[in-house]
Design brief:
Helix content is 40%, strand content 21%. The protein has 15 helices and 22 strands. The protein has a seven-stranded mixed sheet with strand order 14-15-16-13-12-18-19, sandwiched between helices. A six-stranded mixed sheet has the order 9-8-7-10-11-21, sandwiched between helices. The protein has a three-stranded antiparallel sheet with strand order 5-6-22, with no helix packed on it. Keywords: Oxidoreductase.
């Protein structure tokens, strides 16, 4: 049964959401009383104003985390696991409100928001199970006489910076392993979409997270607030999801005190369709890889390479599917594609499409902004996109599927790898040997073989080259928050 979302329901869920900073286990206003507006991208109207943190608020949060660190690190793993499990259950209990809040501040259709809530909650369940499985080792030295005792300890206070496109899941993907490992943290969500993370902070408080262990800072001055915290020497870990350009600057700042870092940076994912692919499956996979979150994802298929023998048929089927998508407010029934996050992102998508067309690409569907309010762009299919088009090198971050033909396997591999990015790629072929061969040859941290979605809390998520450092999710995710300590024990 489809819920009818009334204006009163929208206003109620926003009014119930926390709109202050969460520091030291308390909800507080920004010290200077500043606020920033949260805008509904489907209308351009203001939803509410939330506290806008200053540098002083940042120091308060960092000191609160530092004060809580030792006791939290000493907490029994089972207690930390139980907190995460309670948070997982509370997220499911409040899934409808969390999904609506996300749709209002970010724009994605309610069905996708509900999917993200479930996905986000799963990180808490996954890492609740990892918390009690942190292991070590004991070994006799090869020459005898000494024993090696290997243990793992929390890395310490951690700083997190999360993006607007997955406002809940990007937070739980960082907080889950940090809490499981015993690390207190300060998290700064994107200013465009702070409400989801503030709502999560209240859930964590109710789940039993000790005061100061999780602190949430919303600010319009990200670099001004976060840089002093990074350079302080108090925090020992930074996990960032965002652009490669910002990631480079943060790595420079982290170098001052040799901080541990995890970086999930830009992507330029390729989607490769070979001539032996099942086209029905390939088109379905392309819709998932391209249109999840309206294309506003680092994992979105940015370059679609299709074997010349099947590109016409593949393009026809994909165009049919894309043209049938309904664009509108994410709260409305039957909507498939929501707005871009803001006017700047919509205009960038339009600019990239215009550049591709000027370079020789043909429009098979869409290719324009619809009239009316909000930051919308129509689902678009382009074919014969040349290598000179900007969208071959720049992330589109929008609902645009650019098709380019290829003739040989070697040509496809070379085209896919001709980028500084290496987050994820997708391959469709019915040949197992070819799939494995191509998958191994592609320069990316992840490969989807005959599937258009690779993200899973139980799998290691991350890229190579300029797409980042470290891994989130899987058993590898908790290792990012643990230091290995070796004790040499003399037995003589």
């Amino acid at each position: 049964m489809t819920e009818t979302i009334t204006p009163a329901r929208e206003a109620d869920v926003v009014a119930q959401a926390p709109q202050q900073l969460f520091i030291g286990g308390r909800w507080v206003d920004a010290r200077g009383g500043r606020t920033l507006d949260v805008v509904d991208p489907s209308t351009g109207s203001t939803l509410c104003a939330v506290a806008d943190a200053s540098v002083d608020d940042g120091w308060d949060a960092l000191h609160a985390a530092d004060a809580a660190q030792a006791d939290f690190a000493a907490m029994a793993p089972r207690e930390r696991a139980d907190i995460l499990r309670r948070a997982f259950e509370l997220m499911h209990e409040r899934a409808d409100d969390l999904a609506l809040l996300m749709t209002l501040e970010m724009g994605k259709p309610l069905a996708e928001s509900r999917g993200e809530v479930a996905y986000a909650a799963e990180f808490f369940r996954h890492f609740s199970e990892e918390a009690v499985r942190i292991d070590g080792g004991y070994q006799v030295a090869p020459k005898g006489g000494t024993r090696f005792l290997v243990t793992k300890q929390p890395v310490g206070v951690s700083l997190f910076v999360t993006p607007w496109n997955f406002p809940l899941a990007m937070g739980t993907r960082k907080l889950g392993p940090a809490l499981a490992a015993g690390c207190a943290s300060v998290l700064k969500p994107a200013g465009q979409t702070p409400l989801s993370m503030l709502a999560l902070a209240e859930i964590l408080r109710e789940a039993g997270v000790p005061d100061g262990v999780v602190n949430i800072l919303v600010t319009s001055d990200s670099s001004g607030v976060m840089e002093p915290l990074i350079r302080s020497g108090i925090a020992r870990k930074l996990s960032f999801t965002g652009s490669t350009g910002v990631g480079r600057k943060l790595l420079e700042q982290c170098a001052e005190h040799v901080m541990r870092t995890s970086m999930e940076l830009g992507g330029n994912a390729a989607f490769v369709v070979f001539d032996d692919a099942d086209l029905d499956k390939a088109v379905e996979g392309a819709m998932l890889a391209k249109m999840r979150n309206s294309g506003e994802a680092c994992t979105a298929a940015n370059r679609i390479f299709v074997h010349r023998d099947v590109i016409e048929e593949f393009g026809r089927r994909l165009t049919e599917r894309m043209a049938a998508l309904r664009v509108g407010r994410g709260v409305d029934a039957g909507v498939d594609v929501g707005p871009m996050i803001d006017a700047g992102q919509r205009d960038k998508v339009a600019e990239l499409v215009s550049d591709a067309v000027d370079s020789g690409a043909r429009v098979l569907a869409g290719g324009e902004t619809p009239g009316g309010e909000g930051y919308f762009y129509l689902p678009t299919v382009l074919t014969d996109v040349p290598g000179s088009a900007r969208m071959r090198d720049e992330e589109i971050f929008g609902p645009v599927a650019p098709l380019t033909p290829f003739d040989t396997e070697e040509e496809a591999i070379a085209a896919v790898n001709s980028t500084e990015f290496g987050l994820v790629n997708y391959v469709y072929t019915e040949g197992l040997t070819r799939g494995l061969r191509v998958g191994e040859a592609l320069e990316s941290g992840m490969v989807g073989l005959n599937q258009g979605v690779v993200s899973n809390p139980a799998a290691p998520f991350g890229g190579v080259k300029e797409s980042g450092l470290g891994r989130e999710g899987g058993s590898e995710g908790i290792d990012e928050f643990l230091e290995t300590k070796y004790l040499g024990i003399g037995m003589a």
